[in-house]
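dumping this here before i forget
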Amino acid sequence: MAGEIRNLGGRVGAWLADMLLYLFGVSAWWWVVLLVVTATWTLRHLGGSPTSDRRHPSSRSPAFCVLLAGSSGVEALRLHSLKVALPSVPGGLVGDVVSRVLQSGSASRAPR
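structure:
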């Protein structure tokens, strides 16, 4: 162990933060944004007021996944000089996979 855990989430919070940083890099903060947006939307509609948005909430999940993958990929491709202590490479494991796929696709289409 590196030291005593000092956060509000305790061991579970430290483990979750470490896993999110390992998987997504700094792009893991999108999960915080999602949590805040979901909590705000839920609190506004607790009274049973009708919503003007007719889309099902699950239709937003694919959009969030694309945002997270794209953000992690850009982070892995372009933010190597980022001065943040991460458990893995910038962009995390997801960003590394996305950047490799993007680099292999662009290399095969390059003029020879």
